[in-house]
Amino acid sequence: MTSGPAPRDTHRSAHFARYVLIGFFTLAPLWVTWLVFDFLLGLLAAIGTPFLLAMAQLVAPVSATLADWLRDSSFQKLVAILLTLALLYGTGLFASFVIGKRLIDMFERALARLPLVQTIYGATKRFLQTVRQPPVGGQRVVLISFPTPEMKAIGFITRILKDSDNGRELAAVYVPTSPNPTSGYIEIVPLSEVVMTDWTMEEAMSFVMTGGTNAPENIRFSQPGAPQ
After folding, report:
1. pTM for the full predicted model
2. Which of 142, 131, 116, 118 is nearest to 196 (CA)?
3. Angstrom distance (rounded) from CA 155 to CA 143
4. Which end of the chain has a smaller Cβ tally under 10 Å, C or N?
């Protein structure tokens, strides 16, 4: 007759599994943070790299050493990021002046004559403007009944519409999925059924990306005055 595992072996297995889980949950946030920063840094470097390669070709006849530095991947990534950030800062500063706004307006009118380009550019600009501007009631983070009437999901109001039949206000709500908020659902719900919260965008995004573990202690779950 075979006996079960010895108590000492069971204890060791439980001990090992426990600390493996602790190690995983300790390193997982660092790993996710690194993935996000690595993606952003890679994106910025990809934008700035063509400028560095062009500079390397220009300075090669004068200084071969400097040209080699500009072609080095590590140095190239660092300088590309700095140049890209400087370009973004300069563009933002220029766009805040009257002459900058006029030139950008002229550029956008020229883009409006190109149907496909205007569709992509216009849709992107409208989305970014929607995110930057406060929606109805000054609050964007809401709760809606999704996927069932008994359940609530965090969502972001992106637009207010009107019902063509009765004029009732409707809210276009983007419901992100966890842990990747860039994928989700678009739901159109009556504005009267949307529960406004006092959460900020940062708090809501942290809630989604951490699977609900990082959030304020309180949230309004139902409409004020609704029966409990």
Report:
1. 0.49
2. 142
3. 6
4. N
Domains annotated on the chain, with CATH: 7-96 (no CATH), 97-132 (no CATH), 136-209 (2.30.30)
Q: How far apart are CA 157 and CA 175, in angstroms?
A: 9
* Sign of the dihedral through C-alpha 215, 216, 217, 219: negative
3-state secondary structure 88-114: HHHHHHHHCCHHHHHHHHHHHHHHCCC
Cβ neighbours, 10 Å, residue 109: 10
Residue 78, C-beta contacts closer than 8 angstroms, at least 6 positions apart: none
Residues 136-195 have pLDDT tens digits of: 555 688 999 988 888 999 998 888 899 999 989 999 998 988 877 767 888 999 998 999
